[in-house]
Amino acid sequence: MATIDITKLRKEFGDDGEQIVAVDDFNLTIRDGEFLVFVGPSGCGKTTTLRCIAGLEDVTSGTIEFDGRDVTDQRARERDVAMVFQNYALYPHMTVRKNIAFPLRLSTKQSSAEIDEQVEDVADLLGIGTLLEQKPRELSGGQQQRVALGRAIIRDPEVFLMDEPLSNLDAKLRSKMRTELQELQSELDVTTAYVTHDQTEAMAMGDRIAVLNGGELQQVGTASEVYRSPTNEFVASFIGSPSINLFTAEVSGTTLSGPGGFEYTLEDGSLVTGRESVRMGIRPEDMRLEAGGAVPSTVTVVEQMGNENFLYAEMGDIDITARIESVMNPEEGTDVEFGFDESDLYLFDVNTSEALKTKTGETDVAYEKYIGETT
Amino acid sequence: MRTETRNEALWKFGAYIFLMVIVVLVLIPLYWMIVAATIPQSEFFSWPPRIIPGLQWFDNFQALQENIDFLNSMWNSIIISVSYTALSLVLCSMAGFAFAKYEFRFKEPLFYFILATLVLPIQLLIIPLFLLMVQIGWTNSYLAVILPWAANPLGIFLMRQNMKAIPDSLLESARMDGATEFQLYYKIALPTMLPSLAALSIILFLNQWQAFLYPLVILQDPQMYTIPLALAELVGQQRVYFDQIMVATSLAVTPIFVVFLTMQQYFIKGILSGSVKQ
Fold it and tell me: ABC transmembrane type-1 domain spans which residues (chain B) (predicted)?
């Protein structure tokens, strides 16, 4: 277990004058025992950051410390870090038993009997105790995944790194493994850095989430923080599914007017004072069908999810999405109007994309109070 | 449906007939070699030719052994070919691993330089190599035959091409598990490359087993002769010892069969499968 401090990390790729900066000015502390998820679109530098922590990539500048011990120039095998790869990377010529025992055979002087005992413990923990004598090619994807996990766990490392470990599994198995991984991590209490491009997975799994874009860290926070209080437009648009509706509105006084006849007067106008225009964001789940609402639009598609419907509509030349009740099934071409609460409104600076206003209102409502309100 | 399966069966039948003809054509000379090794030379050119093996093999062998000390040549050939194959496998796989999986300065030019040496004919190299061996006093030694060709460019090329198929994550995973770079080579790369190593070892062994020109120049002492050199002794200006040649060649091919049969078990298809999820 360890606290990981990353300071001013920079990683460039390529040579002969053509430099690609994969990670730039990256500062982050991963707390002891924390499950931290790196999330971002492909090419955002999340995997590169993970590989720098692993010691598989040399950093261009900056430092990485485990519990105050500078590991920046240490090799991967000196760092006491275990990694689970996206494609599992099992040793094809070894049985499951040998695969899991491999790190112990290399890094400890334990006897074969001791190693065997630990391998069996780990295999039982992961439910692959009966597969020990099989080769990786004889296993299913989920079983291979468990072997890869077993190989990481057995060393009892200071840090776990996981690079999209669930992305090769089918949807059902993925959600099962997601829960298992979380349970395993909290049981072992090992500091974990986890990379995914799937924001749902990130929200569901991480103690905290680090959102990356273009090689830069955008925001670190709990799922609720990045969802409710994104620091900028990118985080707001990346987190949440379906993603937030964003458009530019002109400001006159305290009134915002946008495409397709959008018009809304702010109760608290101080946020937009002195601005000519502003970027507006409303989450699909905060839109409600409402006669005379501020968002006039024309329905294009309704997707039925069973428990709810996704309504896609056009407001002027802007596509907007709304989550509505499953009983609402407006036909294509219907003109509808949406309303929203000002507390749910997001505002961003047009030039810097930084957040001016995010969701307000209570977050942690006590159970008794909630019950009292609804009954 | 019916006609299709019938057509398929016909095709298969035809293919088998064709293959059997080829097999017979290949086996005839081998069979004749065995027959000829067991009959006196006087019956060599009799008509119709003999097809039943005779009982003269031991006499022929004795004559051969007295004439050129064949067993000694066989011993020389085995030592040279086996140690050459082993050494070359190590060097080629190491070089191939480096070229396939590491980044270093001048990697590409160096690799193409090695490939370019493939086009140099052996005749071009023989004189300089001979002079070198004379200078360092290695003529008439096993080392002089083994070392100059041990870093085989074809072998390096083959190993590099095959080792490129080893997923990087497999090596990185082993690095994280605590493996040194050398352990990556012999615990991960070599075991996953067994089929390629087996194929390469056959090529290398055969090359050295049949080598004639270079050993002829370097090995002048008959005590050091390999089988091809010893066989050449049997073709004199006055007389060709056909019976002895046939005994010698029939013995000379046995190690090749041994190598083939031992290596065959390593031709496992898809040894890398299951290591990474595509």
Answer: 74-263
Domain check: are A196 and A298 in the same one?
A: no
The CATH number for A199's domain is 3.40.50.300
Cα A245 versus chain centre, distance: 19
Q: What total number of domains does chain A contain?
A: 2
Across the range A258-278, mean pLDDT stands at: 89
Minimal CA–CA distance to B192: which of A105, A355, A135, A183?
A135
B15 has pLDDT over 70: yes
Q: What is the pTM assigned to this prediction?
A: 0.83
- Closest CA in chain A for residue B188: A91
Q: How many helices (H) and strands (E) does chain B have?
A: 15, 0
Decide: A64 and A4 in contact? Cβ < 8 Å: yes
Does residue A17 sit in the same domain as residue A117?
A: yes
**Domains of chain B, start order:** 2-59 (no CATH), 68-264 (1.10.3720.10)
Q: Is residue A374 in some structural domain?
A: no
**pLDDT grade, residue B277 (50/70/90)?**
low
Q: How many CB pairs under 8 A join A and B?
A: 88
State both tokens at B242. 């056909």
Q: Please name every residue paired with A84 in a beta bridge, in sequence order, or none if there are none.
A: A162
Residues B45-57 have pLDDT tens digits of 888 878 888 888 8
Mean pLDDT in residue range B220-228: 92
Same domain flag for A312 and A257? yes
- Alpha-carbon distance A93 to A90, whole Å? 9
Residues of B in contact with A155 (CB under 8 A): 177
Verify that A327 and A213 share a domain, yes or no: no
- What six digits make up the tokens of A198? 């799937």
- Give the gap in angstroms from C-alpha B206 to the nearest C-alpha of chain A: 28
Instruction: For residue range A81-101, list pLDDT tens digits in order.
Output: 999 998 899 999 999 999 999
The answer to whether residue A375 is domain-embedded is no
Q: Mutation test of the interface with chain A: which of B102, B173, B181, B269, choosing the one with the most A Cβ atoms within 10 A?
A: B173
The answer on pLDDT for A319 being more than 90 is: yes
> What residues of B are in contact with residue A144 (Cβ under 8 Å)?
274, 277
Same domain, yes or no: A142 and A268 = no
Which residues in chain A are closer than 8 Å to B174, comparing Cβ atoms?
A: 91, 102
Looking up residue A267, the CATH number of its domain turns out to be: 2.40.50.140
ipTM attached to this prediction = 0.82
Quote the domain boundaries for residue A328. 242-367
Q: At residue B216, what is the residue type?
A: L
pLDDT band at A372 (very low <50, low <70, confident <90, very high): confident
The CA distance from B275 to the nearest CA of chain A, in Å, is 5
